[in-house]
Amino acid sequence: GDSVTQMEGPVTLSEEAFLTINCTYTATGYPSLFWYVQYPGEGLQLLLKATKADDKGSNKGFEATYRKETTSFHLEKGSVQVSDSAVYFCALSDFSNFGNEKLTFGTGTRLTIIP
Amino acid sequence: DAGVTQSPTHLIKTRGQQVTLRCSPKSGHDTVSWYQQALGQGPQFIFQYYEEEERQRGNFPDRFSGHQFPNYSSELNVNALLLGDSALYLCASSGQREKLFFGSGTQLSVL
Asked: How far is Cα B49 from Cα B77, in angstroms, rounded to an integer?
């Protein structure tokens, strides 16, 4: 079945450091790929997505590129801020026949940014 | 727009009891999905409801059941609670081919 493997945390960085969180996937077919973020006490929020190979998703300075050849979707940001502290989840979806997403998530990576 | 609302926010039950969690989808959304997020883990898909029918189901036992009402709101029921059912239960709503919107979840503790 479908699965997502992401870099284990926690990850602690200083403000303005470069961030990479690795994510690889296993799927049949051609899934869409996502990064979700979860702030303390809140639900999941979509950070960015890519729906086909070589697509780059971007939002709030974060980027990730859908790499079919390496089955990866690594999250990057050039200069992190304290407000980026959260748990980040990589996920994939197979729209199947219904047209609505069923997501398979990784285990999450807790990111803490130190001023 | 209120987004996806879930109730209650926190719940404590004992083993063997039954629990009902509730979800109101975002305005305009007709599909509701439920996820279980155990501590330190990613959310796992339980099931999805559309037009008051269960449309997809993940690898969860029959103790987990649900319902969708004509106004698209939904309930998740769990019977014969086990300690391992302690988790954050997330509801997500969507429209056709639209992204999912998640609620803040119900934290269930089973003692």
From this structure: 13
Question: What residues of chain B lie within 8 A of the CB of A103, using their CB?
Answer: 35, 43, 45, 100
Q: How many C-beta neighbours within 10 Å does residue B86 have?
A: 17
- The partner residue sitting opposite B90, judged by closest CB among A44, A46, A106, is A44
Query: Could you report the per-residue pLDDT of A57-84, keeping only the tens digit for each?
Result: 999 999 999 999 999 999 999 999 999 9
Question: How many Å lie between the alpha carbon of B102 and the closest alpha carbon of chain A?
Answer: 6
C-alpha span between B101 and A43 (Å, rounded): 9
The residue in chain A having the minimum alpha-carbon distance to the alpha carbon of residue B95 is A100
Smallest CA-to-CA distance from B78 within B5, B12, B9, B21 is with B21
Closest by Cα among A108, A103, A29, A25 to A67: A25
What is the pairing mode between strands A11-14 and A109-114? parallel
> How far is B65 from A24, CA to CA, in rounded Å?
32
pLDDT, one tens digit per residue, over B73-101 is 999 999 999 999 999 999 999 887 667 88
The pLDDT of residue B37 is: 95
Option in B42, B55, B99 nearest A108 (CB) = B42
Is it the case that residue A95 has pLDDT exceeding 70? Answer: no
